[in-house]
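Sample entry follows:

:::
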Amino acid sequence: ELSFLDMSSIEFKIIQNRKSFDETGADEIYFLISANAGEEPKPLSKIASGGELSRVMLCIKAIIAQNMQLPTIIFDEVDTGVSGEIAHKMGEMMGDISNNIQVIAITHLPQVAVKGNNHLKVYKADTDEATYTSMCELTKEERVEEIARMLSGREIDAAAINNARSLLGY
């Protein structure tokens, strides 16, 4: 899975140590990683970049999804720290998972958002009393506009719209 996400030199090890049973269980589990050829694996939590952590987390969740009878899996910004081609590949991986189970992906990346079958927009509105969070399903044209906004920010021009249509395959 990690090779697909351009981590072809990865070495990944899991170490399990038994300990006295307490509120966290009877095992200590350590993930060790070497992202570069010739380096000894070290604790993932200490050496991995944000993008590497995101890719490892997606792969772990993908493997879990393939081997368990889950009705739904939620990816909450699992694509943090990646962009471009890696974001595209992560979107493909989530799309593949969605062939077997429902996938809900919270993302700010257009390369990931375009892979979904449905697109829901979450937004906040303030009143004098509180902030309210709402959600709506986007129509095909609203989806083009939202992807264009993700690509270019507030000002949406023809180039952003064309790029959004291209990413969506419209």
Q: What stands out?
A: The chain is about 40% helix and 30% strand.
